Automatic annotation (TrEMBL):
InterPro entries: Acyl_CoA_acyltransferase, Bact_Acetyltransf, GNAT_dom. Keywords: Acyltransferase, Transferase. Pfam families: Acetyltransf_1 (PF00583). It comes from Pararcticibacter amylolyticus. This is GNAT family N-acetyltransferase. It comes from the Bacteria.
Length: 170
């Protein structure tokens, strides 16, 4: 089946929220503290969509995954304990989640590939992201996809591992 990557629509919020609720539960079952404090929530998703930052990976009419993508918009990244690989424009993504029905198909990597294409289409060659220290699945994906550990950033009082991937122009 073909997957498509598109901007999320406000009518997608309920389906996206269901996907995120399952991801929140999986984080907890994995022993992670990530997303166990009421974030993200439906208001966060709605805000992503209103800012044109919410994106979905679809299989036909079914939403298989979600993420939020921003350009040069992550204030916490200015205060990294460490050093980014680049200092220019960057794309940052947050809240990657794959639907329960689509787990084990490598779709998180598919979403990251779509984010990298999003960046290159805008002539931006840096993708930055962060994750919890105990999110083993995301840490493995970063490693497999060529992201480089750059240091720590802080969100809501907690340290997170920060990564960057420099993209080639081709």
């Amino acid at each position: 089946m073909e997957y498509s990557f598109r901007k999320a629509h406000i009518e997608d919020v309920a389906e996206i929220w269901e996907i995120l609720q399952h991801a929140i539960r999986r984080r907890k079952e994995d022993g992670s503290n990530q997303w166990q404090d009421g974030y993200p929530n439906p208001a966060v998703i709605e805000n992503d969509i209103k800012k044109d930052a919410g994106f979905v990976l679809t299989e036909g009419d079914i939403i298989a995954g979600y993420c939020a993508i921003f350009i040069n918009d992550e204030p916490a990244y200015a205060d990294i304990e460490g050093q980014w690989l680049t200092n220019g424009d960057f794309v940052v993504f947050h809240r990657i989640a794959v639907a329960e029905s689509h787990l084990g198909k490598g779709l998180a990597k598919t979403i990251l590939g779509a984010i990298e294409e999003f960046a290159k289409d805008r002539h931006i060659f840096s993708v930055k992201a962060d994750t919890n220290f105990d999110n083993g699945a995301m840490l493995k994906i970063f490693e497999k996809m060529g992201y480089v550990y750059c240091g720590e950033v802080y969100f809501r009082g907690a340290a997170r591992k920060a990564f960057e991937k420099v993209l080639s122009a081709s």
